Amino acid sequence: MKCPFCGHSDTQVVETRVSEDANFIRRRRQCASCHKRFTTYERPEVNFPAVVKKDGRRVEFERAKLRASLNLALRKRPVSTKRIDQVIERIEEKLLALGQREVPSRRVGELVMRELKKLDKVAYIRFASVYRSLEDIDEFKSLVDEVKR
Q1: Which residues pair with 15 in a beta bridge?
Q2: What is the value of pTM for the model shown?
Q3: Do residues 59 and 124 share a domain?
Q4: Is the predicted pLDDT of residue 34 greater than 90, yes or no?
Q5: What gap in Å lies between CA 51 and CA 61, rounded to an integer?
Q6: Which of 18, 44, 90, 128 is the most exposed place for a label (fewest CB within 10 A)?
Q7: Rounded Cα–Cα distance for residues 25 and 19 (Å)
Q8: What does the pLDDT look like over 107-145, one tens digit per residue?
Q9: In terms of domains, do 35 and 96 share one?
């Protein structure tokens, strides 16, 4: 591991800790040349399936896009970042469990809606109304009625 300060390639691990959820390892390192310390994170590399858009394009799954969609639906809602992280983890686990190289964007949207429905009803309605492209008030009303049941 190269030192981010001086570029020297000889660094030593001073401390190692496993994260609370055991998803990554945090290592404190010290450069043998400039003696500055820095932190690295080690996590397993996972290949998520490609997302097939409605128009047939294939794009890489992006955790940041998933987080942005959730944050938009959950804007000004009383949901902690920790709970959002847990939702993202569950969605990623489900995508990996499919064992497929490609997954339709529709499937990702359904996973998001299922998680939001459990997490926050208002956020679910926000997301679903855009995702399902609701056109009129009757469609919106039926969505709200669905949530009430």
Answers
A1: 28
A2: 0.66
A3: yes
A4: yes
A5: 6
A6: 44
A7: 6
A8: 999 999 999 999 999 998 888 888 777 777 878 788 788
A9: no
What is the three-class DSSP state of 100?
Answer: coil
Whether residue 22 is found in the same domain as residue 64: no
Amino acid at residue number 48: F
What is the count of structural domains for the chain? 2
- The Cα 112–Cα 143 span in angstroms is 16
Strands 50-52 and 102-104: parallel
Q: Which domain holds residue 83?
A: 50-148
Q: Residue 143: what are its φ and ψ, rounded to 5°? A: -65, -45
In this prediction, residue 126 carries a pLDDT of 87
Q: How far is CA 50 from CA 26, 62, 92, 133, in A?
A: 29, 10, 12, 24
What are the two backbone dihedrals, phi and then psi, of residue 133, each rounded to the nearest 5 degrees?
50, 55
Side chain identity at residue 79, one-letter code: V
- In the sheet that 37-42 helps form, which strands lie side by side, from edge to edge? 11-18, 25-31, 37-42
Instruction: Compute the distance between CA of residue 97 and CA of residue 47 in angstroms, rounded to an integer.
Output: 12
83 belongs to a structural domain: yes
